[in-house]
Design goal:
The chain has helices at residues 18-28, 39-58, 65-76, 83-93, 96-101, 104-107, 115-134, 145-156, 193-202, 223-236, and strands at residues 163-169, 175-183, 207-213, 242-250, 253-256. The protein has 263 residues and is an alpha+beta fold. Helix 3 (65-76) packs across helix 4 (83-93) and helix 9 (193-202) packs across helix 10.
Length: 263
């Protein structure tokens, strides 16, 4: 009888079975050397773990703004110390809202922020805007006025050019649509009352809330803002369309033309 190649009988120099053979071959191979962990790497990885634990155990109130930004950047920039980048973003743009409101081009001017990270930050900003907008859907907007202001502020406060935005409402004052009708320069947006009313009729809207931003940061209405608003009111009223308010958004606040008794 022919002996099997790996047998416990006869030649005892061979392994007893295939498992032993492959184990022996594996033992003969040189072990792969893992790259050494530098002290810098160990430092920021330990820091990341501690920050995550603080957030898990105590929530966002236990963290400064730059630490919240760090937590986010951990995911976007996995192999770098992100604390200097987070602090540089806040130094450049002032606040978390300023960071997320900045354009991708401006974000990339900060050392450590590439195109992919800049777009990820803008994606997070978009999610926040959509979340605020969803709070208005199907609700009586006038009963959720703070939500309207919060949404407009998130959407427009950090734009570098003026935007003229319209919230179109139905007869229950529920939101039908939210549209940016015009985008202008740093201090002017051309607005055409007939186009505003035409779009309202297309959507069967019976009420409007107007909003635009002042990139300068000061929400004080200008004479042109007041005159333009009155023209829209006068054009819309004969057609049964009410202008509830015109909100002007600045970086640090807002102004209501209705609240100022200017309409």
């Amino acid at each position: 009888m022919t002996k099997p190649p790996f047998s416990s009988e006869g030649d005892h120099s061979q392994p007893a079975d295939e498992r032993g053979f492959f184990a022996e071959q594996q033992a003969k191979r040189p072990a792969l050397a893992l790259p050494p962990v530098s002290q810098d790497d160990a430092h920021y990885h330990g820091h990341r773990d501690r920050l995550r634990i603080r957030y898990r155990d105590h929530g966002d109130t236990a963290l400064a703004d730059y630490e919240i930004l760090e937590l986010l950047l951990f995911r976007l920039i996995p192999r770098r110390d992100t604390k200097p980048i987070a602090k540089a973003l806040l130094e450049r743009f002032g606040t978390l809202a300023g960071v997320f409101g900045a354009s991708p081009a401006l974000l990339q001017e900060v050392k450590g922020i590439g195109e992919a990270v800049a777009l990820d930050l803008k994606l997070i900003s978009t999610v926040a805007h959509r979340t605020l907008k969803s709070e208005l859907k199907g609700k009586q907007v006038l009963a959720s006025w703070s939500s309207v202001v919060d949404y407009c502020h998130a959407a427009m406060a950090h734009e570098t050019r003026e935007q003229f935005r319209i919230l179109f409402l139905d007869k229950r004052n529920a939101l039908i649509a939210d549209e940016v009708q015009q985008t202008g320069t740093v201090d002017h947006t051309p607005v055409y009352p007939r186009e505003v009313v035409k779009r309202a009729l297309e959507l069967s809207a019976t009420a409007l809330i107007l909003a635009h931003n002042h990139p300068s940061g000061d929400p004080t209405p200008s004479r042109a803002d007041i005159e333009m608003t009155k023209m829209i009111v006068d054009t819309a009223k004969p057609l049964g369309i009410t202008v509830h308010d015109h909100i002007i958004i600045g970086k640090d606040g807002h102004a209501s033309l209705k609240g100022l008794r200017l309409i």
